[in-house]
Design goal:
Elements (H helix, E strand, L loop, with lengths): L1 H19 L8 E3 L3 H14 L11 E3 L1 H15 L1 H15 L2 H13 L16 H13 L5
Parallel strand pairs: 1-2
Helix pairs in contact: 1-2, 4-6
InterPro entries: RNaseH-like_sf, ZnF_BED_domain_contain
């Protein structure tokens, strides 16, 4: 399926490149690590090789943000039990106004001088997990 999808993507991209008259102006194409993209880029490189800037040496570039996301996800998977415990605690506190108020009072009692409260992360955003963990650290004495 991915191979077939990659061929279709490659054909559509090639058609657009030719229609737009930019075949000799492309330095690189940036994508994520999907197999279909490898097939599409391979097809483009083969069909446009004589027109690529610098002979296509830098034609295929991986998206740095996507690679970073994969690295972070892998790292987070190594500490998933700890993250799950913290997430459960944060969820418990934030799901009830009375518990949130009690938590704020506990934070004041142990002299946590941070404004705001703990925040729950969003599954599709690893940076929200970073924020949740950082915020939880500020309230460690309260937890």
């Amino acid at each position: 399926m991915d191979r077939h999808k990659g061929k279709e993507i490659g054909k559509v991209l090639e058609t657009c490149i030719l229609e737009w008259g930019i075949k000799d102006k492309i330095l690189c194409v940036t994508d994520d690590n999907a197999c279909c993209n490898d097939v599409a880029i391979g097809l483009l490189r083969k069909n446009l090789c004589d027109k690529l800037v610098l002979g296509g040496e830098f034609f295929h570039m991986r998206c740095a943000a996507h690679v970073l996301n994969l690295i972070v996800r892998d790292g987070l998977s190594k500490v998933k039990n700890s993250i799950s415990s913290i997430r459960g605690s944060v969820r418990y506190v934030t799901r009830s106004p009375s518990r949130a108020k009690l938590f704020d009072e506990c934070a004041k009692c142990v002299k946590v001088l941070h404004k705001g409260s703990v925040c729950l992360d969003v599954a599709t955003r690893w940076n929200s997990t970073y924020l949740m963990l950082g915020n939880a650290l500020k309230f460690e004495k309260s937890i």
